[in-house]
Amino acid sequence: MAEKVLVTGGAGYIGSHCVVELIEAGYQPVVVDNYSNAVRGEGNVAESIRRIEKLLNTSIEFHELDLLDRPALEKLFKKHSFSAVMHFAGLKAVGESVEQPLRYYRVNLTASMNLMEVMQAHNVHNLVFSSSATVYGDPQHLPIDERHPVGACTNPYGKTKYFIEEMIKDHCKSEKDWNAVLLRYFNPIGAHSSGQIGEDPQGIPNNLMPYVAQVAVGRRPFLNVFGNDYETVDGTGVRDYIHVVDLAKGHIAALKKLKDNCGCQVYNLGTGKGYSVLQMVKAMEKASGKEIKYKIAPRREGDIASCYADPTLAEKELGWTAAFDLERMCEDLWRWQSMNPTGFTNGVPS
């Protein structure tokens, strides 16, 4: 029998790519999502999940479920015996979190507490948590390793990730049979090579590369570059971009690590290389063959100049390393965007 893994927020960008990798690694994912970052498809199944079923010629159990709905969560855990949980569900826009901090604290923290309490009640003690490099705040040194101080976050979104990490660490200390791997992502981009699933932001994209891709495909007239006076190679913000499929493979490595009764462990998932906004624009122009118009805009509140990973701990302890280069990331992103100019709604009858 394949091990059942609950995937919260599994219809979203990163979650859906992890569902593909789980199936290919021989696990049986059970996916829950509340559609806050996903598109509803036919038969009341998320469009991303429907496409994965078709792509891999399989069926996936999917439930529309909000982690704030504790009774629904209890019901799901009564029905299934999960070997582990991958927790992606949560609100995730930095700018929005600055404008709506209470909403971010309520949704992200309550959802995680509900999940962990229900896991505890049903003797499910293995967790992979989708964290973020935002927990590091403004970098005190580069590259950022896991020993870098955390908690001085520059926005409420980052603080929710930090608080959830602390909750998980404290819980693992008090409950010795718990194992958790906290994965601090840098900047996931790209898409599955099939072009069938990818990042499809609802409304105006909050992240750079989906916005750039939408400019390239003609959905948006130009890109706003927030700040060109940072102390970086060309004055624009530098980030560590990682292919979403590499990131997903990191989650499979984390699941395997849980088998070692590892307690609570933290790993960066990044490439160790930083690229500026304008370097990313040029790389996307090359991949798409399109001109990407941009305008310089004021800095955004909560943004930092540079952030890139030291990923050596994940290489050493998880046996994981990022395989795809920037060119491949942009090629896969362009394939997804050009095949799906309006995102997942391309495949959904209006």
UniProtKB/TrEMBL annotation:
A Gene Ontology biological process term: galactose catabolic process via UDP-galactose, Leloir pathway
Catalytic activities: UDP-alpha-D-glucose = UDP-alpha-D-galactose; UDP-N-acetyl-alpha-D-glucosamine = UDP-N-acetyl-alpha-D-galactosamine
Alphabetical UniProt keywords: Carbohydrate metabolism, Galactose metabolism, Isomerase, NAD
GO CC annotations, alphabetized: cytosol
Cofactors (names): NAD(+)
InterPro entries (UniProt xref): NAD(P)-bd_dom, NAD(P)-bd_dom_sf, UDP_G4E
MF terms (GO), sorted A to Z: UDP-glucose 4-epimerase activity; UDP-N-acetylglucosamine 4-epimerase activity
Self-association state and partner proteins as the record states: Homodimer.
The protein's name: UDP-glucose 4-epimerase
Organism: Poecilia latipinna (sailfin molly)
Lineage, opening ranks: Eukaryota, Metazoa, Chordata, Craniata, Vertebrata
